Amino acid sequence: MEAIVLNEAQLQAFIGQYLWPFLRIGALFMAMPIIGARTVAVRARVLLAVMVTLLASPLLPPFPDIIFFSAEGMAAVTKEVLVGLALGFSLQVALHIFVLGGQFIAMKMGLGFASMNDPSNGITVTVLSQFYLLLSTLVFLAVNGHLIVIEMVVLSFTTLPVATGLTQTDFVAIAALGSWMFSAALVIALPVFTALLVINVAFGVMNRSAPQINVFTVGFPLTLILGLFFMWLALAVFLPHFYQVMDDIVLFSRGLLRIP
Fold it and tell me: Can you tell me the distance from the alpha carbon of 38 to that of 16, in angstroms, rounded to the nearest whole number?
């Protein structure tokens, strides 16, 4: 039986066929929402990245011949990890819009003290923020957002080849997502903001016309009840807001990965 002989170039090409996609996909799964949450074990994320890599590797274009243990190889590894982290971070910003919107509403309603631990991020958020986060997460999974993300990262190997990396303009655009996050969160909270502003103005007029009434005693529970009522009414436009946010972040991510 004739022995199979592999030279160094063939061995590197075989390893690179799985290593390069694993780096980008693994970094994405470590940073993206839901899969990258702290409640998901690291072993599960690594196993999922390996499975997606094995399935996607035959569909990917040939990779450049790069020596792994060299300065060029280390630079390519860094670029691949940064591409995955950038895509995952962009998706995190999109879902945290709803967390920030819930924070705005809770502070206006007087529910800022009603906080709970967010197990997915390991931080303390308000109850309304956790409600909006769970709602947006369920809708994200319902519309197959996770499959869209996997499709984008697989297509990115064609449009953004290995060792190409992101440019300085891309990182500036990622940093600019912060202003977009605050403005989009304000749009979500604006209906409740406006309604509560009218209620507070009415309480101010009541205090001026009847100073003997303790506005704080009456106003706090009434503001809380009406705030929850208006938030319930605002849920009717939650899906259009969610679809708009997802459309914006998908367009941004496709531009980041040079996908037409």
Answer: 29
The helix or strand, by DSSP H or E, that contains position 166, with its residue range, turns out to be none
Tens digit of each residue's pLDDT (9 = 90 or more) over 65-105: 888 778 888 888 899 999 999 999 999 999 889 988 888 88
Measured over the CA atoms of residue 246, residue 85, residue 137 and residue 126, the dihedral's sign is: negative
Per-residue pLDDT reduced to its tens digit, 90-144: 999 998 899 888 888 888 777 666 665 556 555 666 778 888 888 998 999 999 8
For residue 118, the cross-strand partners are: 123
In the chain, alpha helices (H): 8-31, 42-56, 71-109, 127-142, 145-159, 168-175, 177-209, 215-234, 238-256
Domain residue extents for the chain: 8-256
Which of 34, 127, 18 is closest to 80 using CA atoms? 18
Give me the residues paired with residue 117 across strands. Answer: 124
Residue 166: CA count within 13 A, CB half-sphere: 23
